[in-house]
Amino acid sequence: MGNNIVADNGHGARAKVDPRGESVKVEATGLVRIDGIACFKRVERAGKIYLQFCDNDRLRASCRGTRLVEVPLESLFQILEMEKRQ
To answer: According to a count of CB atoms within 10 Å of the terminal CB, is the N or C end of the chain lower?
Structure first.
């Protein structure tokens, strides 16, 4: 996989940068791994793509009634674009 570019976020943390997305793998089950880290599951319903996250905190999951949280990809993209403009 090419060179590991490292970025500093300005708060002392460093991160590997993958400008071409080479470290992103989507399994047949829809599970998305980034550099081997299981991040979320891609779920498609009625032509709409959702990112499904699993919350392992028992208290939050109990309050919510489920460990799973789904966010429409379109909504996430819109929020990120709004944040970028501010």
So the answer is: C
